[in-house]
Structures are given as C-alpha cells and as structure tokens.
Fold Olfactory receptor.
Amino acid sequence: MEEVNQSEVSEFIILGLCDSWELKTFFLVVFSSLYLITILGNIFIVVIIIIDLHLHSPMYFLLANLSFIDFCLSSVTTPKMITDFLKEKKTISFGGCMCQIFFGHFFGGGEMVLLVSMAYDRYVAICKPLHYFSIMNRHMCIGLVMVSWIIGFLHSISQLVIIVNLPFCGSLELDSFFCDIPLVIKLACLDIYVLEILINADSGMLAAICFILLLVSYSHILITVCLHSKDGTSKALSICTAHITVVVLFFGPCIFIYLWPVSITWVDKFLAVFYAVITPLLNPAIYTLRNNEIKNALKRLKC
C-alpha cells in the first residue's frame, strides 16, 4: 500500500451516516431543525441572562458560558453534516479535518471543566450559603471560566500535536460524518497501538477527573441537603437534578467513545450524533424547563 505524507494529503472522504437518499432527506430535515433550535435556544439563554438583572448571579453567569460553548460545539460539525446530505461525494480538506478535531476537543474539554465549575458553584451555594457571595465573587467566576477555556485549549492542542504530522495512506475514508481522532489515526501508515493509548489516556484522563469531581461535589451536596432542614430542599434538588442530568448526557457518550470504546460502527455513529447534535440541544431545554427563575425572566420579558 502506497504511503502518502501529510503534506500530500489534500482531503479525506467522509462516508456519512447512510447511503439512502430517502434517509438523507429525512436526516436533512431533522438535523436542520434540531440545529436551528439548538442555536436559537442557546443564544436565547445568553441574551436573557445578559438583559435580565435578576439573573446577574454567579450561577447564571456560568450557565450563559455553558450555552455559549454549546452553541460553538454544535457548530463545529453539524453544519458540515447537514450540507453533506445534499452531496453525492462527501469530502473534507485536511485543514478542515484538523480544525474540526481542534475545535471539537477545545469546546468539549472546556465544557467538561465548566460543568465542574458549575458543580462547585452549587456546592458553595448549598453547603456554605453564608459565604456564597464572598467566595463566588466576580473574580472567582471569571477565573473559573478562564480556566475552562485554558484547559480546553491545552487538551485540544495536545491532541492535535499527536496526529497533525502523521503519514497517511490508503483510501483515506472516514466512516462517520465528521473528523475525530480515533477515526483519523486508523488511516495512519504505522502501528497506532501506542497512539491510541496516548490519545485515549489524554481524553480519558480529563473526562475521568472531571467526572469524579462532579460525583464528589454532587454527592456532598445531596448529603448536606438530606441532613439539614427541608427548607429550600426542593429548589436545591431541582437545580442539582438539572445539572446532574446535563452531566450524565454529556459524559455518557464521552465515556463510551474514549474510556470504553466499542467497535460497532452504528453505535459509534449514534454516540457521535448524540454528542455533537443532541446534547447541545438538551442543555438549554433542561435548564429552561426546570428553572423557575428563567421562567420568571420570560414572563418579565413578555411584559
């Protein structure tokens, strides 16, 4: 098999989700609608938090940043996937592929850390309510958001460095609708065993550390809520339930993709769709439908 250096690779072939034109038409309508709702939903949350003074608190500042990251994360792969439904031959340039990998891991890694920051915010609010505003001050909130962006960038650049100079060969076909590292390294003209360990360790370590911190935080919160008086318990549990739901939906696919990978193509594609399309849509829905303060802000907006 002839080897092709990275400098000679101009594009990769994307096989997509399916070959049937009927399914492509169906997916085009469905995913276009979901993407539009995702974009409008996340933008709406950011805007309403900015304009409503009642929502100018640490929790909603972090929520606005989460919605912004979801807006960016959904835009990394979904527009390309939607336009590819209209094409017979689907390709992506080498530079476009590397950009998808970089920004996908950048926003994904940043969201993991931001979810930990939101859990810490709830921990301080429920377990140390008298010190909440002294701990979660302006500088702390900005610092938590900056840390999430920095860690996301470092995680992403460390992933990109591993694959950007790999030699590629063969048909250069990606059996998915976007570029991701586990798929791209399989096209490398060398033994990828060590590379797979490094990449899974990098992504898996970040996901595992964040997930453990989240479990510890919410376990401590739930124990504190159960041990103390029931005043405000329902509100605390409602907020934590929304956060925990988002955490499970976000980390579930990550665990299967990186920590517990499967070798079944349709499962990989389903998890990829769920992670890239469904999760950014569910986050604004979960936070708005279960949050009374957001609902009250909507009522004030109508008036």
Notes: DSSP finds ten helices and five strands in the chain. Confidence is low (pLDDT under 50) at residues 1-7.
